[in-house]
Amino acid sequence: MPLLKLKNIHYYYGNIHALKGVDLEVYAGEIRTLIGANGAGKSTTLMAISAILQPQQGEILYHGTSLAGRAPDEIVKAGLCQVPEGRRIFPGLTIQENLEMGAYCRRVKAAIVADLEMVYELFPVLGERRRQAGGTLSGGEQQMLAIGRALMSQPQLLLLDEPSLGLAPLMVEKIFSIIERIAGEGITILLVEQNAHAALNLADYGYVMETGRIILEAPAADLLKDERVKEAYLGE
Amino acid sequence: MLTAIFEQSSLFLQQLVNGITLGSIYALIAVGYTMVYGVIQLINFAHGEIYMLGAFLGFSLLSGFFGFGLPFGLAVAVSVVVCALAGVLLDIVAYRPLRRAPRLAALITAIGMSIFLQNLALLIWGGQIQSFPQHTIPPFLGEPALLLGDVVVSWLQVVILTTAIFLMLALHLIVHYSRIGRAMRAIAQDKTAASLMGVDVDRVVSYTFALGSGLGGAAGILVGLYYNAVYPTMGYFAGIKAFAAAVLGGIGSIPGAILGGGILGLAEVFGGGYISSSYSNGIAYAVMILVILVKPTGLFGRQQRDKA
C-alpha cells in the first residue's frame, strides 16, 4: 500500500482548471519527484495534499485512509509536513522560534529540545545564529531553516516545493545532499522541482506534469534517458 | 511672578498626570485593535463596544443591576472574563464566516456589530448615564495618593496606571514567551506558513480576540470609575480614539499601540487644557493625521502589501 495516494484530483481556481485529474503515489522510504514547468500545477498539488486547498473532485489517501475534510493542522499531526515554495519562514521570529513553530503540534518538551539540537547539528549555521531574526538569513540559509522547521514536526512524509529556487549552484548542491541525508534517516520525500536534472538524479521515481496533468511517470533513471524529458526539461 | 510660574508648572504637572492616566487607558484599548489587525487584517470597529460592555458589566455587578452584587475585585474579574468571551463570540459569529470574503465585507460587518452592540446595551441598560453607587467603590480610590503642592494624584489614577502597566507586561510575556503568542506572531507574518506548521489558525485568532477584548473590558471598567459615567455610546469616541492611537503607533504593532495611546492621552489632555476642551476629540485626529503625513506606516509600522 502506498504511503500517499492521489486519485483523480481536480482543482479549480475560480474558472481556471488547475489540476485536471492528478494521480500520484508515494511509497514509504522513497524519494519521488514531481517535475514540470512553471504553472504546471505542482505547487497546487502540494497545497491540496496539505489541505490548504480543497480539491473539488478526487481523493487523497494517506496510509489508505482518506484525508477529506481534514484541516491543515490535522495533516501535520498525521505526519505530512510541507516546506513551501519561497521558503516562507517567519522573518520576524528568531531562528529558534521558527524551529519551535515547526514543533507546534508536539507537546513533549524534552523531545522538542533534543530535535532542536539535531537540527542545529544538521545545519550548524542555524545553531550559531539561533537568537537572530529569520529574515536576516541569506536565501540558502533560509531554505535550511525552512527544512529544519519542517523536520521539527517529525514528519513521515516531507513535501518539498522547489527547494533549489533562487539559490546559487553550490548551495543547490548542498541542499540536495541534505535532502538525501534526510531520506537516509527514513523520511519519505515528495520533491517538487523545476531543476529536473538534479531532482531526477536524486529521486527513485519521477512524475512529469504539464498544464494540470501527469503526462509521464517512470523510475527516475528511465526519465533521465527519455527523449521527451531530455528535450523539454533537461535541455539536451 | 514666582507664584505665577509655580501655578503654571503645577498646572503642567497636573495635566501630565491626567494625560498619562488617560493615555494608559487608550493604550489598553488600542492594543486590542492592533492585535486583531495583526492576525486577520481586520479593523474590529466593534472593539469600542466591548470596552463599553466592560464598563456596563462592572457597573451592573457592583450596583446589583442584575439582582445581585459582587465584591469589587470579583466584579472586575468577572467583567473582564465575560468581555474576553464576548470578543471570541463576536469573532465566531460575525467575522469567521467572512474570513475568505473581501476585506470590505468584514469591515462593514464590524461597523454593523458596533451599532448592534450599542443598541443592545441601550435595550438592556437604557440610554441614561449610569454612575457607580458610592458604597460599591472602595473609598480609598477617591483619596489623594500623592500631593505635590497643588498637584493631586488620586489613588484611582495610581490604580489605573499600575493596572494598565501590569496588564501590558503580562501581554508582552504572553506574546513573546508562550506557545500561543509565538503562533500569533507567526500568523501575523505568514498565515499560510503557520497553517503548514500545524497551527489551527481559527483557534489562535480566538485567543487573540479573547486577550484584546479582555484588555478592552478592563479599560472600560477603569474609565467607568474614572469619569464615574457609563452609557451605551461611550465606546464610540473611546474606540475611535484608541483606533487613532493604534494607527499612529503603526497598526499591527503592540509597542506602537501603547506608545500611540500614551501620545494621544497626553495630546488630548494638554490640548484640552491649553487650547480648549471642546477640541479635545479633534486633537486626537489632528495628532494622528500629522503622524501619518510624516510616516504613513505609523511610528512602529511595517511596510505591507495591500491585500484588499
Characterise the protein shown here.
The complex is a heterodimer of chains A (236) and B (308). Chain A has 236 residues and is an alpha/beta fold. Chain A has a domain at 4-85 and 154-233: P-loop containing nucleotide triphosphate hydrolases (Rossmann fold), CATH 3.40.50.300. Helices cover 39% and strands 27% of the residues of chain A. Chain A is built from ten helices and ten strands. Chain A has helices at residues 42-49, 72-78, 95-102, 109-122, 124-128, 139-151, 169-184, 196-202, 220-225, 227-233, and strands at 4-13, 16-26, 31-36, 57-62, 65-66, 80-83, 157-161, 188-193, 205-210, 213-219. In chain A, the strands form two sheets. Chain A has a six-stranded mixed beta sheet, with helices on both faces. Chain A has a four-stranded antiparallel beta sheet with strand order 2-1-4-5, with helices on one face. In chain A, β1 (4-13) and β2 form a beta hairpin. Chain A starts with a strand and ends with a helix. By secondary structure, chain B is mainly alpha-helical. Chain B has one domain (13-294): ABC transporter involved in vitamin B12 uptake, BtuC (Orthogonal Bundle). Chain B has helices at residues 2-40, 47-63, 72-95, 103-125, 155-177, 179-189, 191-196, 201-227, 234-249, 254-274, 280-294; strands spanning 144-148, 151-154. In chain B, strands 1-2 form a two-stranded antiparallel sheet. In chain B, α9 crosses α10 and α9 packs parallel to α11 (280-294). Classes of the chains: A alpha/beta (236), B mainly alpha (308). Chains A and B meet through α2 and α3 of A and α6 and α7 of B.
